[in-house]
Amino acid sequence: MDNLPEFKRILIKLSGEALMGNQGFGITPEMIHYVAEEIAKVSRLNVEISVVVGGGNIFRGVAGSSAGMDRSSADNMGMLATVINSLALCDALEKRDVPTRVQSAIRMDQIAEPFIRRKAIRHLEKGRVVIFAAGTGNPYFTTDTAAVLRAHEIRAQILFKATQVDGVYDRDPVVHEGAVMFDELSYMRVIEKQLHVMDMTAISLAMEHDLPLQVFDLHKEDNIRRAVMGEDIGTRIYNK
Fold it and tell me: CA separation (Å) from 240 to 102, 188, 228?
């Protein structure tokens, strides 16, 4: 029994930047295949997996807005960037014989299904990975918020944020040598200390609906599997 996953249904949030590898833009083939293999390992454990991928490796709406572009137009471009990443991840997963569906919050029927909650849940029950693309479909909302929203809608047991660092720190570990990583945190403390985990809209939504969040390093092999098995990696955030 000890070898059984702790979670049956999960949502994994990936940043678009995670797909860049060592290059400064776009998708590195080695990285997309690495991420797909890490997800495939978990799929083989009969865990129901959904994924939200950011688009920052292609276009970031906030950056476009700060450069003078209309914020709604910039965010729409960012949402389309997430669709590109989602299609790339879908292709890499299916090359590993992992059945996958992309559901988009913006209708584009030739390349992705529209997001339909009941259909997404049915895909998960049939063992398919579901990738939620195009954020919430609305400007002014990040893919972090989209991840929390979709996790609630499909009744995921936990949200895994697989990121560039190994957990949540009290200060930026790149700048501050003495920064301390938290093993666990309450959502209230994240808000009070303004810790950079997700945007405050996403954190507030997760806290309100009691959705646990675990932050860990995507680049350490087997970390997604270890998190699914309930191992103590990264930082766990929940209502205390």
Answer: 35, 9, 21
Q: Is residue 3 part of a domain?
A: no
Task: Give the Cα separation of 119 and 142 in Å (integer).
Answer: 23
**Which helix (DSSP H) or strand (DSSP E) does residue 1 occupy?**
none
131 versus 173: the higher-pLDDT residue is 131
- Report the pLDDT value the prediction gives residue 16, as an integer from 0 to 100: 93
How many other CB atoms sit within 10 Å of the CB of residue 164?
10
Whether residue 144 has pLDDT greater than 60: yes
| Structural domain range at position 105 | 9-238
68 domain residue, yes or no: yes
pLDDT at 5 over 60: yes
Condensed to tens digits (0 to 9), the pLDDT of residues 9-60 reads: 999 999 999 899 888 889 999 999 999 999 999 999 999 999 999 999 998 7
Residue (of 56, 35, 36, 46) closest to 10 by Cα position = 46
Q: Are the C-beta atoms of residues 12 and 192 closer than 8 Å to each other?
A: no
| Alpha carbon distance 172, 206 (integer Å) | 23
Residues 6 or more apart whose Cβ sits within 8 Å of residue 100: 89, 90, 93, 94, 128, 129, 130, 131
Q: Judge whether 4 lies within some domain.
A: no
Q: What pLDDT digit, counting tens, does each position of 104-126 carry?
A: 999 999 999 999 999 999 999 99
**Beta strands 129-133 and 100-104: pairing type?**
parallel
Among 114, 122, 51, smallest CA distance to 85 is for: 51
Q: Which residues pair with 161 in a beta bridge?
A: 13, 215
Distance, CA of 174 to CA of 193 (rounded, Å):
18
**Global pTM value:** 0.95
